[in-house]
Amino acid sequence: MKHFTCVEDIGDLKIAVKEALEVKKTPFKWDTLGKNKTMLLIFFDSSLRTRLSTQRAALNLGMSAIVLDVNQGAWKLETERGVIMDGDKPEHILEAIPVMGCYCDVIGVRSFARFESKAADYQEVLLNQFIKYSGKPVVSMEAATRHPLQSFADLITIEEHKKVERPRVTLTWAPHPRALPQAVPNSFAEWMNAAGYDLVITHPEGYELDPAFVGKAKVEYDQRKAFAGADFIYAKNWAAYAGDSYGKILSKDRSWTVDAEKMALTNNACFMHCLPVRRNMIATDDVIESPQSLVIPEAANRVISAQAVLKRILEENVWHI
Ligand code: AN0
Ligand code: CP
Questions:
Q1: Which of 6, 70, 227, 289 is most open to solvent, judged by the fewest CB atoms within 10 Å of its CB?
Q2: Which among 7, 60, 6 has a CA at the least distance from the CA of 33?
Q3: β-bridge partners, 138
Q4: Which residue is closest in CA terms to ligand 2's atom 1?
Q5: Is residue 213 within 8 Å of residue 190, measured between CB atoms?
Q6: pLDDT by residue (tens digit) across 60-77?
Q7: Model confidence over 280-306: pLDDT tens digits?
C-alpha cells in the first residue's frame, strides 16, 4: 500500500481486520518500525479524534509526528493555477505541497468537502494534489468524499461486537443544524458493502447518496422499517448530494433523531456514531449513554485503524532519503 484513501487501498478486509486486532493486542510489538521516520499531519479542518489517534498510532510505531493547522499560523494558500496572486494569499499550494513533502516521510491530510463545486469535491482535487506533488505516501484523514480511517475503525468495532457472521447494519440520517459532508456515510457504505454486510440506508427523500457508494445497499425511506431487526444502528447527518441541492440542508426534522423508542425496534442493536455528536439532534442522551452505545470503543479503535494503516505503509514503502 502506497497511499490510503479508500477501501481498495487496504485490500482483503479479513486480513486487514486480523492485522488490526493483532495491533490492538500487542500495540508496541512494532515500536522500532518507524525509527527515524516522521509523519506530518496537515489539518485544513478541525479535529479531535483524528488529530490525537493518528499521532498516537505513529508514536506507537516509533515514528515522530508533527502537526500543521493550515488555518492557524501558516500562509494562506492559493489553490487555483494561473491566478495572478495579488490578493490575500501569499503562497501557492503547488509550492506548499512539495515543501511539506520535504519535511516528512508520510503525510496525513484532512480537508472536508467545500460544497463550492460538486465536481471538485468528488474529484478529490486537493487530496490528489498531495498524492501527485508531495512525493510521499498520503493518508486521508477525511477528504471531500471519504473518511477511510473512521470506516476501518467502524469495521473493527463491528467485528468485535457482532453476534452473527453477516450482521444487519442500518445507516440512518439524523438532523443537524449545519451542512455536513457525505464523507462519513459514503465511506461507511463503501466499507460495509466491501465487508459483505447486509446494509440498509435510511434518510428523508432528497438525501440520496452517490449511487457509487450506495452500491447494493437497500435504501428505505421509512426509518422505523429500517430499524426493525437491525444489529447495528450507525447514525450520521449529511447534506444533500443530488443535483442542485448539493451541499444544502433540506430538513432539520427532529422526528429523525435516534431515540430509545426507535432503538427498541431493533434486534437489541448497538448504537454507533463517529463523533463529534450533537446530543438530542442526532441521538438522545440516553441512547448515547446506553450500554448498547459503542461511541467510545469506536473512537478508541481510531488508534488501531491508524496504526494498522501506518504499519502497512512503513512495511511496504521504500524511502529514498
Ligand atoms: C465532520 C463531518 O461530518 O464530516 C467530521 C466527522 C468526523 N463533522 C462535523 O463537522 C461536525
Ligand atoms: N471521528 C472523527 O474523525 O473525529 P474528529 O473530527 O474529531 O477527528
A1: 289
A2: 60
A3: 107
A4: 274
A5: yes
A6: 999 999 999 999 989 999
A7: 999 999 999 999 999 999 999 999 999
Cα distances (angstroms) measured from residue 31 to each of 64, 285, 310, 320: 11, 39, 12, 22
181 lines ligand 1 (CB under 6 A): yes
Using most ligand atoms within 8 A of CB, pick from 42, 50, 298 the residue to mutate for ligand 2.
Answer: 50
Which CATH homologous superfamily contains domain 7-146+302-320? Answer: Aspartate/ornithine carbamoyltransferase (3.40.50.1370)
Strand pairing class (270-272; 232-236): parallel
On average, the pLDDT of the chain sits at 97
CATH 3.40.50.1370 segments of the chain = 7-146+302-320, 150-299
Contact 100, 74 (CB under 8 A): no
Q: Does residue 261 register a pLDDT over 70? A: yes
Q: What is the pLDDT of residue 317?
A: 87
CATH top-level class for 150-299?
alpha beta
pTM: 0.98
Rounded distance from Cα 47 to ligand 2 centre (Å): 5
Q: Which ligand is nearest to the CA of 149?
A: 2
Does the beta carbon of 263 sit less than 6 angstroms from any atom of ligand 1? no
Q: Above 90 in pLDDT, residue 98?
A: yes
Which ligand is nearest to the Cα of residue 183, counting in written order? 1
Backbone φ, ψ for residue 130 (5° rounding): -65, -40
Q: Indicate if the alpha-carbon torsion angle 155, 222, 143, 112 is positive or negative.
A: negative
Contacts of 203 (CB under 8 A, 6+ apart): 172, 173, 219, 221
pLDDT score recorded for residue 139: 98
